[in-house]
Specification:
two-stranded antiparallel ribbon; Rossmann fold; 216 residues
Length: 216
């Protein structure tokens, strides 16, 4: 059973809150989580109830106390697979690719960036936060040797489609696309488009709060 994206997104936000509070508090209510995220507390309870479909135990809140923070945090990690490490490559060593390479918290959620790739000779051979930048032509060989099938695409828009097709031919099965470009890849390659502009516009839209409340 797959987890709907909007549920995954909210559970991840709940995890951020729980991680911040785990050393200072023992319990947290759905009302407090909801108030921090500006959503309805019934949505929080519904999402936590959803965790019962994964594993043999659910999460029960205590009346007037709330949920045990460490227990709920662990259940979310179990449900979303944080402990199942997934290796990936970053394609594009520009500003965005470099910023993602420097985001060390990816490891906390099971994403391990092994290396970066670019076509710029001035970048090839350099290291960014411990990740070496290789020539894009080496991606297939390294992917095969290391068993990597996830690519994080951060190249300029004009190069995105060619890069995606090259990655598909090199054995990538999953592309996390940060470019403002809709990719045309073989059907066996799964693409997730990270729409930064869309997220910004949603944030500034006056109807955002109502949309979240109505999410299932």
């Amino acid at each position: 059973m797959g987890i709907p994206y909007k549920v995954v997104n909210r559970l991840t936000l709940y995890h951020f809150i729980l991680d911040d509070l785990r050393e200072s508090e023992t319990f947290i209510s759905s009302t407090k989580i909801a108030s921090l995220l500006n959503i309805d507390d019934s949505q929080v309870r519904k999402d936590i109830k959803y965790l019962e479909t994964f594993g043999n135990t659910g999460i029960e809140g205590k009346c007037r106390v709330g949920y045990n923070i460490k227990t709920l945090k662990h259940k979310i990690e179990e449900c979303l697979g944080f402990k199942q490490t997934k290796d990936a490559f970053i394609i594009g060593a520009g500003n965005l690719g470099s910023a993602l390479a420097k985001y060390n918290s990816f490891k906390d959620y099971g994403l391990n960036i092994l290396a970066m790739f670019d076509t710029d000779k001035n970048k090839i051979g350099t290291t960014i936060n411990g990740k070496e930048v290789f020539s894009l032509t080496k991606v297939g060989n390294l992917a095969s040797r290391l068993g990597v099938d996830i690519a994080i695409l951060t190249v300029p828009k004009d190069y995105a489609r060619d890069a995606a097709n090259y990655l598909a031919g090199a054995g990538m099965k999953y592309i996390w696309n940060f470019t403002p470009c809709i990719l045309d890849v073989p059907k066996d390659v799964k693409v997730w488009n990270e729409n930064l502009i869309g997220s910004f516009l949603q944030f500034t839209n006056n109807d955002k709060e109502e949309d979240i409340k109505n999410d299932n």
